Amino acid sequence: MSSSSFSTKPQWIYDVFINFRGGDTRRNFVSHLYYALSNAGVNTFFDEENLLKGMQLEELSRAIEGSQIAIVVFSETYTESSWCLSELEKIVECHETYGQTIVPIFYDVDPSVVRHPTGHFGDALEAAAQKKYSAKDREYGFSRWKIALAKAANFSGWDVKNHRNKAKLVKKIVEDILTKLDYALLSITEFPIGLEPRVQEVIGVIENQSTKVCIIGIWGMGGSGKTTIAKAIYNQIHRRFMDKSFIENIREVCETDGRGHVHLQEQLLSDVLKTKEKVRSIGMGTTMIDKRLSGKRTFIVLDDVNEFGQLKNLCGNRKWFGQGSVIIITTRDRRLLDQLKVDYVYDVDKMDENESLELFSWHAFNEAKPKEDFNELARNVVAYCGGLPLALEVLGSYLNERRKKDWESVLSKLERIPNDQVQEKLRISFDGLSDHMEKDIFLDICCFFIGKDRAYITEILKGCGLHADIGITVLIDRSLLKVEKNNKLGMHQLLRDMGREIICESSRKEPGKRSRLWFHEDVLDVLTNNTGTVAIEGLALKLHFAGRDCFNAYAFEEMKRLRLLQLDHVQLTGDYGYLSKQLRWISWQGFPSKYIPNNFYLEGVIAMDLKHSNLRLFWKEPQVLKWLKILNLSHSKYLTETPNFSKLPNLEKLILKDCPRLCKVHKSIGDLCNLHLINLKDCKTLGNLPRGVYKLKSVKTLILSGCSKIDKLEEDIVQMESLTTLIAENTALKQVPFSIVNSKSIGYISLCGYEGFARNVFPSIIRSWMSPTLNPLSYISPFCSTSSYLVSLDMQSYNSGDLGPMLRSLSNLRSILVRCDTDSQISKQGLTTSESSDVFLPSDNDPYWFAHMGEGHSVFFTVPEDCRMKGMTLCVVYLSTPESKAIEYLISVLMVNYTRCTIQIFKRDTVISFNDVDWHDIISHSGPGDKVEIYVIFGHGLVVKKTAVYLMCDESIDKGMDPSPEPKIEPKKNAFVKFIKKIVSSKNEEQ
């Protein structure tokens, strides 16, 4: 029957349905066949996976109808199963109705016996018919089964007895099935090592986005396996879609074909619509995609995209596709994915060491592990490849069956002369950079800055006139750079070698004519023979020990454009005036001189790294280094004092770690308004910092750990309003500055045994101040200025007569604290106050009407959601001796807001002189829902029994509060006095 006579095909659910007699074949042949098909990406129905879970015959019928190919495994006892025969009858029917393909396999039974059942095969068929059908239907049923057997056996298939190696037979059957399916599986790598988990990660994302148009980006550097992953995903899930398209090599098509965009649109439309489509223009193509694909559930893969226009013309609007559609894009440029607003970006990771070694071994040795005598060489090559699949495959194939000395030769020259095949692939990303500045940034980093801090590199290259902020971002997005731990910039070793090879190409035989020099032998040659030229912009020579090589500064005379200079442990004699005036970065570990020579021109330098130098003084005659931002003199064991910072007005980072003889920081440091890092770790001779340091409002990080002679941090530290990190362990400090907890910026602290985030550490610091044995006011400067109008009166001094005359004589009185033991004393006082005065008379108060009460010296409460505070009343119930005056023993009140992570500290003088500004400050730092704790800190002589707080809310809101506190005032008049007397009485009994 011709295909044109077939009914409309159903939507395939399975690629293959396997019909077999389980007792004969399930445990060996069929199981191997099933797993081989599955591993090839063929969606196979197998009764061990489905039937044994209770599937009914009608469900089996639907599975058969939904399978594109039926494999029928005939065995000796096949006809004993009426179930198998009924399935076979349905399979033949579906072939004749829908055109499904039938592939017979004859397992220990001759094909002729199946076509014309005889012997046990025929007898079993008759027995099955007798058992299955009634007498009147038996002949009809037997006849149908016999016809189905004959038809199925007449298809081209496989006779197992003709194949001695069953494993090879299974492989051939799988290959045959793949060719018979109505799609072509995409060819992927021969050795898919580590591929499956990467594929499943992306498929998992797709399945979670099944109700929308899902767009996924696969992003990574050249040769990392992006296309392989995309093809493997396509092979596994494209059967779920009736309409699909995989478009390869989009970058190449657009670069080599003037009508590339139009041809890509034609391919997409033709693949999905299964017709030959013609597109005359890009605009027409986008309109056709919109109109013709709208509503269709499609699966599209766009491989190797390098311009946003390609995406715009092929999938520019999600509305062009039906719900449940999936679009996968592979690219080296992250920006394109961000611009399209994809749902998920899969960042292709490099292969790990074990995966790399296995993949390399398959290509180099034709097995999963290296040969024993090549093991070390193989691991060295794998390390060089850095987990890049392309490099592992290319180099593995190149070294296959080569001798040991060939391996050693290849390894010795790889870094100098990288493999052409690998470099050609990697260079595509570099050549695709449209801006020469981006190329310069890449070449500078690959020669001098791999592994260094991103911000550090950015500052230096900006000083070179390069747009480093945007340029570095572009390189990261293009997979030419990566950001590693602690914001360091990293680069794949093969990309590094590619960049360096580009530089070498400019002058293969004369290194002095290249733009950048980094290779040890090349630099030695140029400096020894004075062959440097104006072409050189960067030079790095890293020696391990000082004194071995000595050069004359004259060798730098022609290097007029030298911007970047690294000389580690290099001895340089002669006139430093020969060094370039264009220098922006100097990294000179082991700088040999006792001070910087006067003729060493540094006025354009951005960063100076002179670690392990022999400097005694920074300079004798200061230069104005207007552009210097980073100064690192760490481990300079002879340095005694810092430079005069007035000559370094824009310094941002000062790093002086482990300078054991440094005893003085110049006072001009207080004038550095841009300074944000001070690192003085392990400067063991250094005394206390100049007071000007505490005025630096820009400093974010202050590190003093190991400065064993620093015994004091000034209370002025609270003025360092940008300070986020303070590290001062292993110093002579014995006490945390009282003002530190009032800092609004500090995030991390480590000093005096306290370490961690401020929000976690500050409560512990505060509790340390609660001890009656510790009075921080005895050794710190006033936390805030004391009011010159403050007057504090003790009621016991005026227990006869009233206070009226006294109060009238104090015209500047702002507050008064009256200490009363009995209500009779209060009644004697004819107290009147001016409008601005506050009088606290607790004796008429009942402690039970306070909103919140705590045992001891603190009270915790949550501000009600419906309370807009306008004030609060704080009450402390304490025990004391008659001669003790509470006001004299009060140290401070601390208010900790755990919700807002703020701490307010009010010293005694402030507490007893609260004015409207003070109250506004309290209220502004607390709001509805905030969790707050108030500590009242007294010295010796007082025992705090209870602390209570009553919140006063805005009148309009207060009325709605339930219960309202006001009605609670009347029931127990004078109860507070009775409460106090009870406590005093119990104290007297204790005595």
From TrEMBL:
Domain TIR residue range list: 12-181
EC number(s) given by UniProt: 3.2.2.6
Catalytic activity: NAD(+) + H2O = ADP-D-ribose + nicotinamide + H(+)
Enzyme class: hydrolase
Highest rank taxon of the organism: Eukaryota
InterPro entries documented for this protein: Apaf_helical, Disease_R_plants, LRR_dom_sf, NB-ARC, P-loop_NTPase, TIR_dom, Toll_tir_struct_dom_sf, WHD_ROQ1-like
SMART domains xrefs: TIR
Keyword entries, A-Z: Hydrolase, Leucine-rich repeat, NAD, Repeat
GO molecular function (one): NAD+ nucleosidase activity, cyclic ADP-ribose generating
GO terms of biological process kind: defense response; signal transduction
Stated name of the protein: ADP-ribosyl cyclase/cyclic ADP-ribose hydrolase
Organism per entry: Glycine max (Soybean)
